[in-house]
Amino acid sequence: MNGQRLSLSLAVIIGLAAGPMNAAQAQGLFRSSTGSICEPAKEAGVKPVRRTLLYVDKQALSLSPDEQEWFGAVNQMLQQTMTTAEPLDIVVLDSAKGTAKAHGSTLCYPVIEERYHDRFAGSGISGLLTNDLIDQLPDLKKEITVQMQDQVGPGYADAPQQRRQSKAEDIGKRHLLRALQSDAARFGGDLPTRVILYSDMIDNSDLVDLNAVLSGDDEQRLNSATSAIDDLPRLDFQGAMVYGFGTAAALKNPVAADALNGFMQQVVYLSNGYPGDFSRELSVPAIRPESVAQYDMEVTVEERTFKGRMQLMKGDNGRLTDSFLDLGTDNRSAHFTSGRLICSQDNSCQLEGKLATALLFEDPENVFLEGSQDTLSGHLGFRNDRLADSDNPALLPIEAEVRP
Predict the structure, then answer these.
(1) What pLDDT digit, counting tens, does each position of 166-205 carry?
(2) What's phi and psi for 301, nearest 5 deg?
(3) pLDDT by residue (tens digit) across 342-374?
(4) Which of 61, 84, 219, 307 is the most exposed place for a label (fewest CB within 10 A)?
């Protein structure tokens, strides 16, 4: 993938397929006494906005030494979206066995946002850098790419050399969702979590019939997803945003891809997560968030009050990413497909956003809120203005207060 492709590219990839990297390749700047850019950021008083979990299914059919476009796509996405000191964990899934294993320690992608430059000016990683850390970022990005490969490599070092020529039936039954469930302890914590999943999804799944998913309607896919989740009681994404991409045969057909996307989104919703797209491409919004706020929320419907939560994560221009509403009942949750939260210098804020799925009406709603960053009020509904018309049944009052 042109400039984003690794400088050591093919030689390292082939080395990974043949076995672990040699000591010189594996060392890298991030095997220093400080571990990674995480430590200098901590010393500078920079707290991460979120964390990212990258899951790589070692049974994915294109996971071969000479076909690594997926890795270039991930690397480019990380450069565009990772925030300063954001933890990155790489976990290899074995969907044939239904297990998960992390290789190596937590990394932090070497990004230092401009607002933190003064804090980092003149600092470096202990004993290794002679120039300012900020000036070293291009070299550090190459080094962390080596570390990322080093962590993924052991997961498929013993894979067949021609895996990309294999067929799904040659691998046998796969247990992707069970593999994710086996790693359930990694979810949770105070930081918002983003999940990137590279896999063939449910090809040859032991939990669901792929053909039934592709040929069924929305209700049948929901029933299939519900049945699958009933067999996975510990699969709980705990509010994580989940994005998936891969090379499954179904994804090559646009109609089938839409059906599979719908099924996987239902699986994530039923597992207390918030799904992005599941497709052949990595569809993560190219937004580098600068802040996140969690709110306790109330929505009033015909004198009945629903209590829930709201997460608003935004970039420097106010654009929302990885944001959602969750009412906590009957799977009533939805993530924002678009929106902006704009605040002036006097802390006067205004939010307008569009939800991906229906929350309380039959169609996806818009959200209109205004107030301060700590306290927002407004409406959920279909109007394209902010008229506080409580008699209009298409507008439902919302109150949101930031969590301490």
Answers:
(1) 555 566 678 889 999 999 999 988 899 999 999 888 877 8
(2) -130, 110
(3) 999 899 999 999 999 888 887 888 999 999 999
(4) 219
Provide the token pair at 231: 């067999």
Helix (H, G, I), strand (E, B) or coil at 145: helix
Local structure of 139: helix, strand or coil = helix
**Among residues 279, 396, 244, 374, which one has the least CA distance to residue 327?**
396
List for the chain the helix, strand, coil content (%; round to 5).
30, 25, 40
| CB proximity list for 73: less than 8 A, separation 6 or greater | 1, 245, 281, 282
Beta pairing partners, 89: 53
Q: Phi/psi of residue 353, each to 5°?
A: -150, 165
Query: DSSP code of 116?
Result: G
CA 221 to chain centre: 23
Please choose, from the candidates 377, 378, 382, 387, the residue with its C-alpha nearest in 3D space to the C-alpha of residue 359: 382
Going by C-beta distance under 8 Å and a sequence separation of 6 or more, which residues neighbour residue 126? Answer: 32, 33, 34
> Do 210 and 202 form a contact (C-beta atoms < 8 A)?
yes
Q: For the CA atoms of 249, 252, 258, 262, what is the dihedral angle to 10 degrees? A: 30
Both tokens of 87, joined, read 């933890």
How high is the pLDDT of residue 331? 62
Q: What is the mean pLDDT of the chain?
A: 80
- 224: which 2 tokens? 């299939």
